[in-house]
Amino acid sequence: MLCAALAALSLLAWPLPREALDWQPALAGAQPWRAVTAAFVHWTPIHLGANLAGCAVLALLGWRATMGSSEALAALIALPLTQLGLLLRPELLHYGGLSGELHALAAIAAMALLTRGGRERWVGAGIALGLVIKLFLEHPLGPVLRDTPGFDFPVAPFAHLTGAVAGALAWRLTMRRSDK
Question: Helix (H, G, I), strand (E, B), or coil: what is residue 51?
Fold first, then answer.
């Protein structure tokens, strides 16, 4: 349900003026809603399509891995935290898109699966390892925007890092007592 809601909000935001919703560090204090609405801003149809595909993949993972209300709550907490982390890179003057939140969802799923036994723990370890490798290869501490072949918009790798970190922190905050 959460991924469907993220996708629906992205589609609803598509025709709206991007500059009224996107993340802008200079406006973070005066317009705090941007820490949430920025996730639903997409710069091009390819950008929107890529993030909708990511929503579909993570929805399937969440369904197959029986993610529950604790994981959904963690995802909601991670949503604004992802954009707030971008304050560490104020040279990123505008940001929009679900990719940071999608990285948060991947981190939440990995951590939840790591707490389980058997094969699920191995799946969680594989997701976590893949996420760490992806983040490392993207050089998130390098230039804030990077042209990527196949995309008609610049990618902000630091948002992927802030999303993954926000997801891990939010998961830790919402973990069930029995899991601690």
Answer: helix
- The answer to whether residue 14 is domain-embedded is yes
Residue 136 phi, psi dihedral angles, 5° rounding: -60, -45
Task: At 91, list the tokens.
Answer: 């040279």
Which DSSP category does 146 fall into? B
What's 149's domain CATH number?
1.20.1540.10
Average pLDDT over residues 40-49: 98
Between CA 129 and CA 111 the distance in angstroms is: 11
Which domain range does residue 17 map to? Answer: 1-174
Helix (H, G, I), strand (E, B) or coil at 23: strand
pLDDT 10s digits, 124-134: 999 999 999 99
Could you give the CA distance from residue 179 to residue 175 in angstroms, rounded to a whole number? 6
- Count up the domains in the chain and report the number: 1
Q: Is 71 inside a domain boundary?
A: yes
Question: Is residue 157 domain-resident?
Answer: yes
Q: Which of 106, 155, 114 is nearest to 131 (CA)?
A: 106
